[in-house]
Amino acid sequence: MFQPKHLTRPDPFSWQYRWLLRLGQRFYYPVAVVSLVAIIALVIRETFENDPFRRRMVILMMLAAIGVLLLFWQAERQWARGQRTLLVRLARPDLLLLWAALAEVLVALGLLISINYTGRGPAFDHLWLLMLFPLLYLSERVTVRGFVLVLVLACNLLLLARHLAGYGFADSLLAPLWLGLLAATNHYLVRRYFMYERRAELLREVANDLSNTPDVDAALPALAAMIARRLRYDHLAIWMPLLPPSPAPGKGPGMGVGEGELLELRASYGLSDVKLDAARLAGVWRTQKPQFPSSSGRPPEGGKWVRGEDEPSTFKSSLAVPIRAEGQPVGVLEVLSPRADEFWEFDTEQLTLMADSIGLALARSRHAQREAQNLRDTLWETVRRLSDCENVEEMFTVLAAEAHQRLNADVVLLYQLAPGTGYPLAPFIIGGDASTPQPLPTATLAELLIRWEPHYATLAVDAYFTRRRVADDFIARENLHTLAFLPLGSRTERAGALFIGYRRAHHFSPLEKLTLEAFASLAAEHINRARATWGKYEAFGGVLFGVHGPLTLSADSLRRLIGSAQEALAASETSSAAQALAAAQKVVRRLEIAAMLTRLSKRESDETSLQEDVRRAATKILHLAEPAGGRAVVNIPPEAEDLPFAIQDAVYCLALEATANASFHGGALRVEIALEVEPTALTLTVSDNGRGFDTKTARPGPNGIFEGLALVEKQFAARGAVHSAPGAGAQVIVTFPILPEEIEN
């Protein structure tokens, strides 16, 4: 229907009204004070035009009054904040009613005094409005009773002053009536604003309570009681359908008139002994509009209200509003009263807001329950499938399939992190180019690993990726639009990093994030389990015993030697038995040394350092070699003591393996071991003065230095090399990359 433009409701969010409100909040009181001063100045100038002395005195008195008002306003602010300053003790803001009444008396006396000097002139005709300002000040600060007392006092004083000034009854009464009308109107508007503000605050509190309720359906009785108490309703009911509603033919969504019987009372307040008829709510359900109370004293829509079995109810009015969730009707919220015509538009508005809050909370709660059930099903199925996995590759394949099926992910990447350093190893990729060795920018990956918290990013706007996307071949080639980073493991025991990529815009819901983080926990558990079975670096097998194999082969050699000694003793061959026993004892001694040197022991105290452990073990190896008497020079800085034990163990084993090779194979008499610790790398260098060898013709054997380099490259992303030439000694250099502790600008 056409509505005249001047009757349309303004948009409070338009820029004109926003600026008007902003200017009003900032400059209302300054503009009011300036206007008041201007009016008073004009009146004083006209009244005392021929008397400069009195004009100056009156101006000084008015300035003093304004100063007193400002000081009192400041004292009131300090008092409201709980401060007890000297100004607060002198002003006593708690006696505001007394000071307002005193101000009205002083203004009335001032008006009477002005009669003696000016007669009934502009001062008395205009300055009586000064009596309005104490009343305006009281409107926001005192109760209605206190305001009415001061207003009656001000009107009587003004009436008396005008009567004493010689005005007639009608003229004397006119100014007090205007004063009462202006003050009462302002007080009503202020109180109305406070009432609406308080109502909005209560509605927000109820909406917050609803939004924090995990299962709204189960909590409906408690919610009904809370809403009724907060909104001061004695009788309240919440109706829900017995079956999901189906559209009636030709009537759109909802139920027909007779289908109101499908509603049932789910929760109520103050209706424990009342049986209500649901058929009368069919109109609300069908039209999806509030039903206004009936003025006839009968139940609306011809329904019945019954108390107990046959006793008629005293309810004479009701108000019912529909509850909607996700655009569909899900129930009816109703309030009832034994008084006729109890409810009006104010109740309709606030009850509609409550129904909308209930519908929103219901939709959120039911969606969360569905998502939680899906999450439980997903995790149960994932755990079942992961229990059959034997290695990390199979585990990652299962996780990638679940992410693709359940979350519609396009690309899934998994980095394992080196123990101790947290440096990313070569990734597993599903859904992208598997030949890409570095699928993410190094700096971006480093930032995410250092922060070590889940990160969900739209690459077009995310700060981590936009500044490096030009140089990122993988993201550009795969056309990724959204990426999720999930850390695997705790901050102190980092196992890996999982990336979920989408080639389209994707918003991660809270339950999707929970699902992804649950996947991350499962992946971390399997990675840690797989690490427990990683191959350990066992050195010295080939060096000490002339065999290329693990220590179990050396144990077989020991058993053969002991068997030979026993056979010699049985044949009474004393010299052969003695030789066999001596050889066996030598093997036992070497085996004990090898077992001690192969693995670094965790130090329980600070009595020894890594440098001392390496120096002592290297010296024993050099003394065991032939010719004996070699010297080991070890230079490991104190910063190495803060390295994780896994890194110290790898450095220890590599250094001693290189020392054993130099002494047993190269005949070296001097071995130098140096460790350089940097924020992003750890470099081990072992040099000797032995015979050297041709690296091109060297045959790497099991458990030797080459196998050790391959092992640390796989498990720590380390880069190692052996440099040697015949007659020039040998040098082993191994670099362990380390993830920095802080992000560099």
Question: How would you describe the overall organization of this protein?
Answer:
With 745 residues, the protein is an alpha+beta fold. The protein has four domains: 196 residues, no CATH class; 151 residues, GAF domain (Beta-Lactamase, 2-Layer Sandwich); 143 residues, Beta-Lactamase (2-Layer Sandwich); 139 residues, Heat Shock Protein 90, CATH 3.30.565. It is built from 22 helices and 17 strands. Helix 4 packs parallel to helix 7. The longest helix has 43 residues. The chain is elongated and about 150 Å long.
Query: What is the CA-atom radius of gyration, in angstroms?
Result: 45 Å
Main structural class: alpha+beta
Spatial order of strands in the largest sheet: 9-8-12-11-10
**Unreliable stretches covering 5 or more consecutive residues:** 244-261, 293-311, 537-553
Anisotropy-based shape: elongated
Distance between the termini: 63 Å
Largest sheet: 5 strands, antiparallel
Q: Estimate the helix proportion, in percent.
A: 40-55%
Quick overview:
The chain contains 22 helices and 17 strands.
